[in-house]
Specification:
- By secondary structure, the protein is α+β, with helices and mostly antiparallel strands.
- The chain has a single domain, classed as HPr-like (Histidine-containing Protein, Chain: A).
- 34% of the residues lie in helices and 21% in strands.
- It has helices spanning 13-23, 47-52, 70-82; strands at residues 2-4, 29-34, 42-43, 60-66.
- The chain has a four-stranded antiparallel beta sheet with strand order 1-4-2-3, covered by helices on one side.
- The relative contact order is 0.32.
- One of its GO terms (molecular function) is protein-phosphocysteine-sugar phosphotransferase activity.
- Residues 1-87 form the HPr domain.
Length: 87
Amino acid sequence: AVFVIKNEQGLHARPSAILVNEVKKYNASVAVQNLDRNSQLVSAKSLMKIVALGVVKGTRLRFVATGDEAQQAIDGICAVIESGLGE
């Protein structure tokens, strides 16, 4: 699933932490990739790896989830990104 980040300041520590906490709710392995920088897939459960993706407003992120609750994880990620990640 691909989502566009709408936050003015991108994904700095606070919104990244909200994203990580959402991902950790699910029994699923979730990876994320910055499509605009052609980054490697990294764990969406790692705050440092998400911050290191260098996400700014308008960045396209691709999430890949596997496991029992993969679809629920993607739906949850969609909801928190659409809600502005606490900002």
